Amino acid sequence: MPGYRSLSNFGYGGPGAAYNTSVTLTDVSPVPQTVIPAGALQVGSTIAVEAFGFFSNTATPTLLLGVYYGGVAGVALAATSAITTTTGATSWPFRLRYKGIVRSTGTAGTIMGGGEVWIPTSLIAGAWRPIPETTFANVTIDTTVAKTITVGAQWGTNNALNTLTVAGFLVENLSTLA
Length: 178
What we know:
The chain has no helices and 14 strands. It is an all-beta fold. The chain has one domain (4-176): Jelly Rolls (Sandwich). The strands form 2 sheets. Strands 1, 2, 5, 9, 10, 11, 12 and 14 form an 8-stranded antiparallel β-sheet that branches. Strands 3, 4, 6, 7, 8 and 13 form a 6-stranded antiparallel β-sheet that branches. A hairpin with a 5-residue loop joins strand 10 (109-120) and strand 11 (126-131). The protein is elongated, with a radius of gyration of 16 Å.
């Protein structure tokens, strides 16, 4: 669209590795990593993130999903709490969407945003959950150095049958060009 530019648009880009057996927050984004260059974000920059994929499970494990700035060891821009999944999921689709607006820049810059996560309760039914699942507030980000934008996931139960794969990942800067 005229007046818009994309920081990264990997579209399909190949699915990420199937994530399982970990109860530690893990980066599940496809490679190559999406990197926002140093200084690319300005006051008013709008960042849109969309991820979709599928998961399978056994029993009723919990699952946490979120968008992270600087990788999963960085800052959570928006995340779910632990969601109890329906047992017996087999390649059920999920979707995550987030938009944030940069409020200030620098080593202690800020962004405020939100979105939603679709978690199925069957192959064809489910529910949207808002992210973040907290009161809206500015999130501190460092805009002076290059940072990755990633999707993080965490199972509540370590089991090889609890898997999650991100099949598509998109990060865009929706800001109007000067």
